[in-house]
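Recall from the previous chapter that SMILES is a line notation for molecules. Here it describes coenzyme A.
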Amino acid sequence: MCNTTLTIEDASIRQLDRLYEIETECFKKETFTKHQIAHLLTDYNSVSLIAKLNSEIIGFIIGMIYPEKNALAGHILTVDVLPAHRRKGIAKELLIEIERIFKEKGVKSSHLEVREDNVAAIRLYQKLGYQKVAKLKGYYGNAHGIYLKKDLA
Ligand SMILES: CC(C)(COP(=O)(O)OP(=O)(O)OC[C@H]1O[C@@H](n2cnc3c(N)ncnc32)[C@H](O)[C@@H]1OP(=O)(O)O)[C@@H](O)C(=O)NCCC(=O)NCCS
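With both inputs in hand, we obtain:
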């Protein structure tokens, strides 16, 4: 019998090599550099989580918290799940957990940008209640972006 256990845990700078490997497997272009991931993992205002299947890291999410007007806002910077583990609800679990942490820290809304041709990600975000606020013309150079937002209050 094969038991598999998915856990969502805090990410650490010690996992940088693995997270960068996943990032380059998930994005063929517009990847964060290793240096950028290291910076994000160690930023005081970031929330970084990994998804582990048994002991193997198979996905991660990074968000940042910052002040916006009179409230705190959360910005999802990346969510990556390895191709072999997709459509099993792992990105959804990562988003649910980061939103829970955002709320615990007093964040009132979560937002993000996504390429307008990234159907998988757009469907994921919409399923979790994110709504299109604006089109970001030329945001990705050769492709437009979409700005999505969700109230967490
Ligand atoms: C987008 C991504 C993170 C989704 O990860 P995932 O673990 O497969 O997503 P989930 O299994 O949690 O999907 C939850 C829901 O999102 C939607 N969804 C996810 N992938 C989809 C796809 N390929 N096509 C259509 N809808 C999709 C579905 O509604 C899905 O629910 P369902 O499986 O019950 O129909 C993953 O495809 C990925 O890593 N892509 C490359 C990196 C990327 O583009 N990240 C987002 C950058 S903004």
